[in-house]
Here is the input.
Amino acid sequence: MRYISTRGQSPPVTVATALLSGLAPDGGLYLPEVFPVAPDDLFEGVAGSDYPDLAGGILRLFLAGYTPEELTACINKAYGRNFDTPAVTPLTMVDGNLGFLELWHGPTAAFKDLALQLLPHLLAVAAAKAGQKEEIVLLVATSGDTGKAALEGFKDVPGTKVIVFFPEDGVSPVQKRQMVTQEGKNTFVVGVRGNFDQAQAGVKALLAAEDFRREMAAAGKRFSSANSINWGRLVPQVVYYFKAWGELLRQQILPPGETFNVVVPTGNFGNILAAYYGKKLGLPIHKLICASNRNNVLTDFIRTGEYNRNRRFYQTISPSMDILVSSNLERLLYELVGEDPEAVVAYMNQLRQAGSYRLTERERARLQEGFWAGFATEEETTAAIKEVYERYHYLIDPHTAVGYKVYQDYRTSTGDTRPAVIAATASPFKFNRGVATALFGAESAADADEFALMESLAEATGAPVPPGLAALKAKPVRHRRVIEPEAMAATVRAILDE
Ligand SMILES: *Cc1c(COP(=O)(O)O)cnc(C)c1O
Here is the structure.
């Protein structure tokens, strides 16, 4: 199985190369040359399968090139012990046909763990396959969730180092504490006196600098990135949509042969694209419901066919979805235009030059066949947290709340009441201020610090705080570097010389 670029100007590569390089040299995203066909037994056993078995069945399809033994070893390291429930991604039904797929039972309490617990092991095998002897040095700029998930995933994985840059004053107190207390011999965390864009620009410049790369190669090191356009981050996310379907069958909520809806709080379009690939493999999904916050560029795109990033950027209480250019959308675009790389290149050029592009009528119709979209304002998000708690005694985080609100709108406007699964992308205890404000009111939440809010939320609701978050307050700080944005290259050198 070979992997090709959505832009068609890079040669096809092996799976190992696709995973190790992330982005194709022509700037496109890697895809399998031929989309796999799922064998019948993947569907037959799904209601009784445990998570590692399901993961094996699905990864095998997309990562041909890995032996079954290699995949099993990677899967066991990722999902064997690191999640706080054997179900890995439990489905909690709050009423007869609405369930929350809890994707936050991993070490960092956000859904990115599902991919980032696995990716380091996939990369280590890929490096061996590609005959690569260099140490892999992962550079990550983060606005919060990705950095911590990468640190936990790569912690003490042989042959790797991970260096995370975060904006010193631009992440939530819980997120910062999660990073500066990080354990592991190969993990490095650096605060940058600047915003996320500066940290991200610094990392991109380092990854692109030819002389720096040569210098590192001479020292036996090779840079890589683990951002969400890496094929190796997308594939593990397909698994939990099968798991959700299996649960609906097992709990007899969905009769065999019937379809269900999937709602995904969306930012970079990775998570919902994984659900789409699940549907393409044969999962009986009716609509993929794309939920955005105030940064509603995807809502407009799915409704009108025009992607237009020329708009104000808002900071919201669901920060992991504050994004105006959803990189993974390019993979869907490739299908909408009939797998024509030249058409993809033309749209991407328009996006770069004019900030917008518009699909043809036919492409728009194709998009709307599979997807429905909506968004939630800040007030609606807060109201959704309160409503779900009051109605179901179930606590959700602001990202998940965006999904809930948009799902309500979907039901109202379509009358479609078939069973639905909302992806719960983070633990409510990761975003205490937003959740506490919704439940207790802005005044009572205003004075308290995040850890005090965490405690009062747990006390008031009886919901368990995930172990990784509960332990945070007592953990010693292990990373104290804070630098100017200009010092990023020097800092990487210093770290690698240690
Ligand atoms: C990253 C993230 C999202 C957005 O996921 P995409 O795959 O980028 O669409 C949503 N919610 C949370 C909590 C996240 O961390």
Remarks:
- The chain has 23 helices and 15 strands.
- The domain at 91-110+234-463 is CATH 3.40.50.1100 (Rossmann fold).
- The CA atoms of residues 390 and 439 lie 9 Å apart.
